Amino acid sequence: MNFLRSLLFLTIAASALADEPSVSYYRDVVPVFKRNCNACHRPGKAKGQLELTSFPMLMKGGKHGDTVKPGDAADSRLFQNISGDEPEMPSEGDPLNHDEVAVIRRWIEQGAKDDTPADAGIHKLSSPPTYHALPSVAALAWSPDGSTIAVAGYHEVLLHSADGERITGRLVGFSPSIAALAFSPDGKLLATAGGATSEYGEIQLWDVASQQLVRSIRTSNDTVFGVSFSPDGARVAVGCADKLVRVFAVADGGEVMKCDNHIDWVFATAFSNDGARLVTGSRDRAVKLIDVASGHLIDDVNKARDAVQCLARHPKEDLVVFGDDKGGLRIHKMEPRGGRLAEGDDKENSFLRECERMPGPVHGLAWSPDGRLIGAACTTGEVRLFTAADGQRTATLKGHEGAAFALAFSADSTRVATGGYDGKIRLFGVAKGELIRTFDSVPLTPPPATALQ
After folding, report:
1. Are 322 and 334 within 8 A, CB to CB?
2. How many CB atoms lie within 10 A of CB 195?
3. Out of 40-44, 313-317, 370-374, which region has the weakest mean confidence (pLDDT)?
4. Cα(88)–Cα(392) distance, integer angstroms
5. Pairwise CA distance, residues 453 & 94, whole Å
6. pLDDT tens digits, residue range 389-408?
7. What DSSP letter does each residue of 334-361 carry, written as one string?
8. Any idea of the CA torsion for 320, 325, 327, 332, to the nearest 10 degrees?
9. Cα–Cα nearest to 45, from 234, 237, 262
10. What is the C-alpha separation between 78 and 58, in angstroms, rounded?
């Protein structure tokens, strides 16, 4: 009798399970992880040694062992941690809602199968995107020959003529987000740094003349930032959300250096004039000098004050200016001081001067090609120009609606282009700071007309 009752119970349970909707790992479970879990369980920040950014890493488990037992949600640590009246996870933020917990439970009970498509994470568009509104401009760069302004868009870089009259090219790539742009010293290549949040970082190398993608370099599991070329154009460096600094060979995309001396996101990089050293800036408040050949830390450039958002190198000298999240602008020499100094040292031997503090966090910096001026853009919408030799303000570039994120000087140092929240590109004269022209960063298409009721 007991056997028959048990058999009946199992039959009813199996029938109930079969009646539940089928759950897809890729379509249903992954979005739950992205919304609630990946901020703490990703490469570079894997709490409990558990990563949830891919199926293999999920099934590998963490320091407490297996996370998922296919077919048995009640005995799966993942389900145990997110369910109940007071769930343990997420440790930060709101608990998963009822539907999200139910999705995880059903997926485990149905066998915890992986249906990740072979082309998952490939975001390549078949044609340039259509814009019904102007997107924020996160990055721009002016070509060394002065003919082209490159502007970051969605999934693409738009090439504008230097006078803003026309778009001369649209470089559509994989990354939805483009965080930084840089032309090679000879102007033949354009490098982008970006990626897809919580999925991958990517460097794209474009041939400017043919407007063809030369190479896509995937790295890390999140967006990369602050791309820069070595003076000989043979290498590119990026800062990463996983706290690492990476350098790659342009010729084949191979990683040639990796440094792990930062303890937070790295937003900016710049090579020394001989290409032997790399200066980097991070949210951990540090600016560091790194030996490119070995990846070893040479020295701390600054005394830690505020989170470093961006930096720019003098075009001919080993000087660097960096901006922080409190509006600070400081100029330092890029040189070692005989090794890292003792504990308690103020680490200010390389300091040269400060510029006037900006009224908000600094997100964009540029040094004019003639080395005379420094431009800074901040979240209040102000863009200011300073004389590098004494740090004095020479002009305030006005008219931005919302935050200003990026700026670049023309090759002859007579003009500066700016971009930001309002999606407009503005050209200013450097001598007087006067506005010359304003144009859209992307081509706009009117939205479809709403049908009359």
Report:
1. no
2. 30
3. 40-44
4. 53
5. 41
6. 999 999 999 999 999 999 99
7. ----SSPPPTT----TTEEEEPPPPSS-
8. -20
9. 262
10. 9
> pLDDT (tens digit, 9 = 90+) per residue, 226-278?
999 999 999 999 999 989 999 999 999 999 999 999 999 999 999 999 999 99
Listed in order, strand segments (DSSP E) in 132-176 are 140-142, 148-152, 156-161, 167-172
Letter string b/e over residues 111-140, b meaning 16 or more CB atoms within 10 A of that residue's CB:
ebeeeeeeeeeebeeeebbebeebbbbbbb
Strand, helix or coil for residue 14: helix
Q: Are 427 and 415 in contact (CB under 8 A)?
A: yes
Within a 10 A sphere around the Cβ of 353, how many other Cβ atoms? 15
d(CA 133, CA 117): 32
Show the tokens assigned to 234: 């043979």
Structure tokens at 201: 């970082």
Sorted by sequence, the CB contacts under 8 Å of residue 328 that are 6+ apart come out as: 305, 306, 354, 357, 358, 362
Structural domains in the chain plus CATH codes: 2-109 (no CATH), 140-440 (2.130.10.10)
Residues in the chain: 453
Q: Return all residues near 235 (Cβ < 8 A) that are at least 6 apart.
A: 229, 247, 248, 249, 250, 256, 271, 275, 292
Contact 365, 323 (CB under 8 A): yes
Q: Are strands 393-397 and 404-409 parallel, antiparallel or unpaired?
A: unpaired
Phi and psi of 191, rounded to 5°? -105, 140
Q: Is 86 exposed, middle or buried (0-12, 13-18, 19+ CB in 10 A)?
A: exposed
Q: How far is CA 201 from CA 63, 126, 312, 364, in A?
A: 26, 20, 22, 21
